[in-house]
What we know:
Blueprint: E1 2-7, H1 11-21, E2 27-34, H2 37-47, E3 53-56, H3 62-72, E4 76-79, H4 86-96, E5 99-102, H5 117-120, H6 123-129, E6 132-135, H7 143-154, E7 158-168, H8 182-189, E8 193-197, E9 200-204, E10 210-215, E11 219-226, H9 230-237, E12 243-249, H10 252-263, E13 272-274, E14 277-279, H11 281-288, E15 302-313, E16 316-327, H12 328-335, H13 339-356, E17 364-367, H14 373-382, E18 388-391
Parallel strand pairs: 1-2, 1-4, 2-3, 4-5, 5-6, 6-17, 7-12
Antiparallel strand pairs: 7-15, 8-9, 8-12, 10-11, 11-12, 13-14, 15-16, 16-18
Helix pairs in contact: 1-13, 3-4, 7-14, 13-14
Bound molecules: NADPH dihydro-nicotinamide-adenine-dinucleotide phosphate.
The site of NADPH dihydro-nicotinamide-adenine-dinucleotide phosphate (NDP) has 34 residues, from helix 1 and helix 13.
Amino acid sequence: MGKVLIIGAGGVATVAAHKVAQHPEVFGEIMIASRTKSKCDAIVQAIGNPAIRTAQVDADKVDELVGLMRDFQPDMVMNLALPYQDLAIMEACLQTGCNYLDTANYEPKDVAHFEYSWQWAFKKRFEEAGLTAILGCGFDPGVSGVYTAYAAKHYFDEIHYLDIVDCNAGNHHKAFATNFNPEINIREITQNGRYYENGKWVETQPMEIHKDLTYPNIGPRDSYLLYHEELESLVKNFPTIKRARFWMTFGQEYLTHLRVIQNIGMARIDEVDYNGVKIVPLQFLKAVLPNPQNLGENYEGETSIGCRIRGVKDGKEHTYYVYNNCSHHAAYLETGMQGVSYTTGVPAMIGAMMFLKGIWKKPGVWNVEEFDPDPFMEELNKDGLPWHEVFDGDLEL
Ligand code: NDP
């Protein structure tokens, strides 16, 4: 039985905490710590297990984290705060001899740019300390990498083309809302698009490339090519890949709002002076947009996220599509959160479980596809994210 410290008390952390609490045989002691302690207490109340401890911590401050971790002595920290905190939490883990897991790669606050280099730079220190760090263990990144590793292990000698397809066909009945932290989400999707082809990265304008893709049980949806962080690790870990792309669906209403937000300067991440106070427009926007944690109650429809893969096995070309569909309403009934938080929080719990069971345990800093996918895939079926396979179908891509 292990001790786990969850950092953050948002939508993803709420789901992960519910799931962790469902497995007392693995997670013997649990603490939730975040910037606002009352939010941690509210999660404990919703779960109904008063043995879960809570604490206040500013996860930007290594010394505060070290103090908390020395006191609680967790085996693993699940970092479910924001990407800005990744490096501080990794540093605190090294100083206290604790293992680490997150769901999003580091991003500096003042530049909308994410890449793994900052976290991969910790590899040697984690190795020397005998500690495991598991990066990007949500759905995408996360399950998308596990799906790819599973395909490579069981169905292909070489993967040549990988398309990760992410559809949210839900309706939350709000004019505009994001499904996870609005600041992080808008920074991500307003960047230039990028994909990998023949050993090079190809840049596109934001949302420049799009096409209709058909999602199981949903139908065709306009899908836009975006840059997504797992592409960076997947092309490194599966060097036979000739092309890797990421697609996400957006409705016209969403895109119109986004365009207006950008055109009027509300997506800016630099400080502006407002009546003598410095504010960051995107952070102000986050304060007035619906909180993604409150979308669940009236959210209808489902998400569908998967990997469409083309490659060769025994000299013959094959295609493979592996995906999960997740109902927003079912996620809400179980955890009080919508499907996007659910599809992220469940894999985070499974990653921590893999570590505590000693299955995904090796000193260093790793992306999920570098571990054995089979036990993780098995657990997805048991923990609310069952997957389905289509062999040699039309990938549309
Ligand atoms: P939320 O904004 O709902 O939650 C973030 C939480 O982190 C809040 O509770 C917040 O505190 C806390 N926090 C922020 N800064 C600090 C700090 N300095 N110290 C301590 N706590 C802090 O985000 P989500 O739950 O939607 O997302 C969580 C993470 O999951 C993000 O990194 C996001 O990028 C990632 N994600 C990954 C996905 C994947 O598939 N891999 C998909 C979706 C999200 P407070 O409540 O006080 O604001």
